[in-house]
């Protein structure tokens, strides 16, 4: 389920906010959060939704619009995946640094939110790197020699 839906509907912003740092205590009610915190968590849900929309709508539009130009497809998708990969690394590092020191290496104590922020994001970063390396796909731009690029 999308983190955006978890934040906006159920179990809600308070649950998500509470789960950012693993804890055995129960999440406080929504009205116990500062309005700025609620707004920030809801906006974070919007960011999650944006990432999902880019992956499902924009990438498909590029494929459909540039069907006969795989080089252009790859350059545009590659630019987007570069930005996402940079964001992945930043997200992993900031999440890891933001954890209390006693939880950073206690992976079995991480909750679903922490695994989503570190484990799943690391997986997505690896998949993006595999795309750049051409694993499982034919490459048209990335990984081609400069002379091949000039001829195209």
UniProtKB/TrEMBL annotation:
The keyword Transmembrane applies. It comes from the Eukaryota. The chain crosses the membrane at residues 39-59, 79-98, 118-136. Keywords: Membrane, Transmembrane, Transmembrane helix. InterPro entries: DUF7704 (IPR056121). Pfam families: DUF7704 (PF24803). Residues 13-136 form the DUF7704 domain. PANTHER family: CHROMOSOME 1, WHOLE GENOME SHOTGUN SEQUENCE (PTHR37019), EXPERA DOMAIN-CONTAINING PROTEIN (PTHR37019:SF2). This is DUF7704 domain-containing protein. The lineage of its organism: Eukaryota, Fungi, Dikarya, Basidiomycota, Agaricomycotina.
């Amino acid at each position: 389920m999308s983190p955006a839906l978890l934040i906006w509907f159920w179990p809600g912003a308070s649950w998500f906010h509470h789960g950012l740092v693993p804890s055995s205590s129960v999440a406080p009610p929504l009205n116990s959060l500062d309005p700025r915190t609620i707004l920030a968590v809801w906006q974070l849900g919007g960011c999650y939704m944006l990432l999902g929309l880019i992956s499902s709508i924009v990438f498909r539009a590029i494929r459909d619009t540039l069907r006969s130009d795989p080089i252009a497809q790859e350059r545009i998708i590659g630019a987007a995946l570069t930005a996402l990969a940079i964001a992945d690394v930043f997200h992993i590092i900031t999440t890891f640094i933001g954890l209390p020191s006693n939880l950073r290496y206690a992976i079995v104590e991480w909750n679903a939110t922490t695994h989503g922020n570190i484990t799943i994001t690391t997986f997505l970063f690896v998949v993006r790197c595999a795309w750049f390396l051409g694993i499982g796909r034919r490459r048209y731009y990335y990984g081609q020699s400069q002379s091949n690029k000039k001829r195209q």
